[in-house]
Specification:
This protein has 227 residues and is of the alpha/beta class. The protein has a single domain, classed as Alanine racemase (TIM Barrel), CATH 3.20.20. It is 41% helix and 18% strand. It contains nine helices and eight strands. It has an eight-stranded parallel β-sheet with strand order 7-6-5-4-3-2-1-8. Helix 4 links the parallel strand 3 and strand 4. The chain is globular. The chain binds pyridoxal-5'-phosphate. The site of pyridoxal-5'-phosphate has 13 residues, from strand 8 and helix 9. The site of pyridoxal-5'-phosphate (PLP) has 13 residues, from strand 8 and helix 9.
């Protein structure tokens, strides 16, 4: 049987190897452990191995685990689809939201972020493969929306996030990650201070790191297949 500790070490080694192979600075790619559907005990096991950042997709599930893990110093990231009636609760219980893709959501997160907390870190989610069914703003709308997000005092826009359509080979997997990096570079050359490219999951983290990911979101390869 493979344990969470062993799988976590394997993922860390893949990240280190990819940093070397693609000439990325050592330690420049952060690992977000995506723990949706997993019990709190699994998060605790990963936490005991030094993992600090965890990603959750559903508010209710996240709240339950936060209660069970209140004795830990976990950094909580919300990465799932966000409905505007959940923004108040989300703004008060996480450190990061990766899935902000509309002005209305940013407005509400900003107004609900409690004053005694640091500004909420956010990523702008981009529908990089232009899929009808996917969340995210179209690439053509990124510059305008990012400028609006950057104006909210209770939010800190850290960068862009994407979930590309599945692709068969390496060049096809790398292309959307490269496109996201180029969008980010345009924002930076326009004067924005962005430091986070949230892209890459279990199956494509190497391709994402090759194209400049600074944060990879990995669930299956740490915790095992989800039901
Ligand atoms: C579930 C999920 C992941 C992790 O996917 P795996 O293939 O299990 O590594 C990453 N990002 C988002 C937004 C997810 O919903």
């Amino acid at each position: 049987m493979t344990t969470i500790a062993q799988r976590l070490e394997t993922v860390r080694q893949r990240i280190r190897d990819a940093e070397i192979r693609y000439r990325r600075a050592p330690g420049s790619v952060q690992l977000l452990a995506v723990s949706k559907t997993r019990p709190a005990a699994d998060l605790r096991e990963a936490f005991a191995c030094g993992q600090r950042a965890f990603g959750e997709n559903y508010l209710q599930e996240a709240r339950e685990k936060q209660e069970q893990l209140a004795d830990t110093a976990i950094e909580w990231h919300f990465i799932g689809p966000l409905q505007s009636n959940k923004t108040k609760a989300v703004a008060a219980c996480v450190d990061w939201v990766h899935s902000v893709d509309r002005l209305k959501l940013a407005k509400r997160l900003n107004s609900h972020r409690p004053d005694d907390m640091e500004p909420l870190n956010i990523c702008l989610q981009v529908n990089i493969s232009a899929e009808d069914t996917k969340a995210g703003v179209a690439p053509a709308g990124v510059a305008e929306l990012a400028a609006e997000f950057a104006g909210f005092p209770r939010l800190r826009l850290r960068g862009l996030m994407c979930i590309p359509a599945p692709a068969r080979d390496e060049p096809a997997r790398r292309a959307p990650f490269r496109a996201l990096r180029e969008l980010q570079e345009k924002l930076i050359s326009g004067g924005m201070a962005l430091d986070t490219l949230s892209m890459g999951m279990s199956a494509d983290l190497e391709e994402a790191i090759a194209e400049g990911a600074t944060l990879v979101r990995v669930g299956t390869d740490i915790f095992g297949a989800r039901q």
